[in-house]
Amino acid sequence: MIRSIKTWILVGFASLLLVACGQGGGGAGSKKSKTLDNTKKAGFVKCGVSQGLPGFSNADESGNWSGIDVDVCRAVAAAVLGDADKVKYTPLSAKERFTALTSGEIDVLARNTTWTLSRDADIGLTFVGVNFYDGQGFMVRKNSGINSVNDFKDGISACTNTGTTTELNMRDFFNSKNIKYEPIAFEKADEVVQAYDAGRCDTYTTDKSGLAAQRTKMSNPDEHKVLPETISKEPLGPVVRQGDSVWEDIVRWSLNTMIEAEEYGVNSSNASSLKDSENPAIKRLVGSEGELGAAFGLDNDWSLRIIEQVGNYGESYKKHIADTGILPNRGPNQLWTKGGILYVPPAR
Amino acid sequence: MIFKKFSIENKKARDLIPQLITVLALISVIIYFATNAQINMGNRGISFGFGFLNQEASFDITFSMIEYDGSHSYGRAFLVGLLNTILVSVIGIFFATIAGVIVGVSRLSDNYLIAKVAEWYVEIFRNIPLILQIFFWYFAALRALPLPENGISFNDISFLTIKGWYVPKFIWTNFNIFLLSAIAAFIAIYFINSYATKQREQYGKQLPTAIISLSTLILFPLITFLFLGVSLTFEYPVLKQLSPTVYTYEGGVSIIPELIALALALSMYTATFIAENVRAGILGVSKGQKEAAASIGLTKNQILKLVVMPQALRIIIPPTTNQYLNLTKNSSLAAAIAYPDIVLVFAGTALMQTGRAIEIISITMLTYLTLSISISIFMNWYNKKMAIKEK
Question: How much is the pLDDT for A13?
């Protein structure tokens, strides 16, 4: 009996000790990056992606992920670990994505996520940039006779994804037009497509890039069309946890490097030969001038590796979005020098 | 004195101390997790609080039993989700019980065909995962329904289509008077019945309670229609063209296909378990009871009603309570087919829009706990009522 009491007392002390430890640990805000250290230790970048959106993040039959969102994670892996393939992908629903990031299950969220004030400021997230400028649109059946959002009437039913900005924009839009509508919100994109395809709803609304990509999954893609109007701004970009500014900078400048590389005409095939370029901006990009990597605790070839292993933004866009027929026209996602709005701060 | 009281030699203290330490350890662990979560949330700049419940939700919900649109608060959205969860659970429990009793009794039928059909039903539906059944009813079965313009019409007042089942809407005037009369009728019936029981037990008089009760139930509300200004009209759904090929129905009430599919899947699935409970209950009544009842000249129906069922119920109720709880909790699978229950609306959309994972998940868990415990308490009360009363 006395023996068992001793055991219990030990258990009690041990748990009190645990409490003390819990309060002691977890100090952040130093210059070192915990996320960077953990990533180097683990040997891979923990990246959250969608559950399958062609062009952005989509797995093929053998489980290899590709897309422009995936390329952001690959760029970070190339910069930090030296190998773009060292990424562990976690497919997430719209609902799960932020919790997965704030809880530390993933370190980069590259999942066609719209940058909004409340998300950036309120829930412990930091958006690092924009890798795709999108806007919300509507898809309808071609034979419906609906040619514009002005043809929508009271009683229309609209399918969309739950937990997205889409759901909120849809309400703003129909309210502003004073149209009574039936919102049907599914958790997974595949279920939205199935329900719309079956005729449960008259229109399917989400980001236009998403509509273009999902149309390819319909039983007969030619029966559907995307209406011309865009009802919202959807700047999609990678997200990191708040509170690790070094990691935030690494992800931000990995993306910026891809865009800057396109601007200076540096691509995966010519990057290494440009080490002796006349242009100092190019030399900084390929690591033959300056000590830019040191600012994040990386070596000087970090940006060269990104360009060589992942390619510049233009290459990534062409491979995943244009050549797959999703959105052949780059529209706003063209460089600022070519009439688009892609403009990144200089890497110097 | 006091020291001796708490010393290890004292038997009472010896018994108490380990328990106290266990409780302390448990509390320490909870405090540890809570402070850890608090520190981590602090580090990541996440605040904790329930103030968001008063903020504007700004998303719409397909189907709501109370007035709701996006300009209402998250708290109101929670209520909408909760009511929808309760609605589908109540419908599910109702049909699961009816189907379960019918199937359970059928399995014991002397008719070979009926018994076999019931057996196959049980074996098929209880052995397929519920989520697949939900998908089946939603994506496979309901998909076979026609578009609104070719809707299956019931007498031109109700239409079944892929967009939902449109039924006439009841439009009441002075509904509360009608409601009061119905309540009054039930109270009257209660007193009539207890009076009849008294008469039977004391004087052996049989009063025609069934007829009296039924006529009260009809008469009371009827009076309100004739004299107290209550009236009821119907608003029928009418086909409406939205574009050259897009139609919908206007007016009436739309029962959304998500609700139909979910209620169907839940009751078909749970009915199999209830059927087995019913079968076990009936088989659990010893044969001698039935034979004894038959030997004193009771009819087959009387045997079932007066001898078998009261005893069988004691075996049936406790496991059936579990099934009711399961059904209620299983209704959270609604999120898969966009039925706006508490998980989809609150733990889904509201969580996403506010990012308050810990708060919202705690509220949702607490809500299910409360729902389940309420069902449990009610069923325990009913069970006690049905149990053998020893005097």
Answer: 52
Residue A5 has pLDDT above 70, yes or no: no
Measured CA to CA in angstroms, residue B251 lies from A177, B236, B240, B254 at distances of 21, 6, 10, 9
- Residue B172's identity, in one-letter code, is W
> Which of A265, A263, A243, A271 minimizes the C-alpha distance to A78?
A271
**Chain B residue nearest residue A146, CA to CA:** B243
**Which segments of chain A belong to CATH 3.40.190.10?**
34-133+236-336, 136-232
Q: What is the pLDDT of residues A207-263, one digit of tens each?
A: 998 898 888 888 888 999 999 999 999 999 999 998 889 999 999 999 999 999 999
Nearest to B53 by CA among B351, B365, B334: B351
Q: Is A117 on the interface with B (CB under 8 A)?
A: no
B33 and B80 share one domain: no
Looking at residue B345, the DSSP 8-state letter turns out to be I
- State the residue for tokens 């940039």: A129
Q: Is the pLDDT at B41 greater than 70, yes or no? A: yes
All residues at 6 or more sequence positions from B157 whose CB lies less than 8 Å from its CB, including other chains: B167, B168, B234, B236, B237
Question: Quick check: B43 contacting A, CB < 8 Å?
Answer: yes
In a domain, residue B60? The reply is: no
SS3 per-residue string spanning A165-185: HHHHHHHHHHHHCCCCEEEEE
Identify which of A2, A146, A164 has the shortest CB distance to residue B8: A2
What's the CA angle centered on A96, arms B62 and A194, to 5 degrees? 50
The residue-averaged pLDDT of B274-284 equals 94
Phi-psi category of residue A244: left, alpha or beta, with phi > 0 → left and psi -120 to 50 → alpha: beta
Q: Which residues pair with A28 in a beta bridge?
A: none
H, E, C per residue of A251-293: HHHHHHHHHHHHHCCCCCCCCHHHHHCCCHHHHHHCCCCCCHH
Cα Rg for chain A, rounded, in angstroms? 23
Give the closest-approach CA distance of A243 to chain B in angstroms: 6
Candidate from A11, A163, A183 with C-beta closest to B60 = A183
The answer to whether position B10 is within a domain reads yes
Alpha-carbon torsion, ordered B339, B343, B347, B353, to 10 deg: 0
In A147-166, the residues whose Cβ lies within 8 Å of chain B are 151-157, 162-164
Which tokens sit at B136?
């089946």
Considering its fold, how many domains does chain B have in total?
Answer: 3
> What is the C-alpha separation between A33 and A79, in angstroms, rounded?
15
Tell me the per-residue pLDDT of B294-333, one tens digit each, with 9 for 90 and over. 999 998 888 888 888 888 988 999 999 999 999 999 999 9
**Once rounded to an integer, what is the mean pLDDT over residues A38-57?**
93
Q: Does A12 touch chain B (CB under 8 A)?
A: yes
Residue position matching structure tokens 């952001």: A72
From the list A12, A119, A144, the residue facing B21 with the nearest CB is A12
Distance set, CA B337 to CA A172, A200, A213, B48 (Å): 24, 12, 22, 31
Tell me which CATH code domain A34-133+236-336 carries: 3.40.190.10
B157 occurs within a structural domain: no
Range of the domain at B10: 2-43
Whether B92 is covered by a domain: the verdict is yes
Q: What is the pLDDT of residue A20?
A: 43
User: What's the rounded Cα separation, in Å, for the pair B39 and B46?
Assistant: 10
Helix (H) or strand (E) holding A186: strand A181-186
The pLDDT of residue B2 is 53
ipTM for this model: 0.77
- Selected from 3.40.640.10, 3.40.1080.10, 3.40.190.10, 3.40.190.150, the CATH number assigned to the domain covering A136-232 reads 3.40.190.10
Contact assignment for A198 to B139 by CB distance below 8 Å: yes
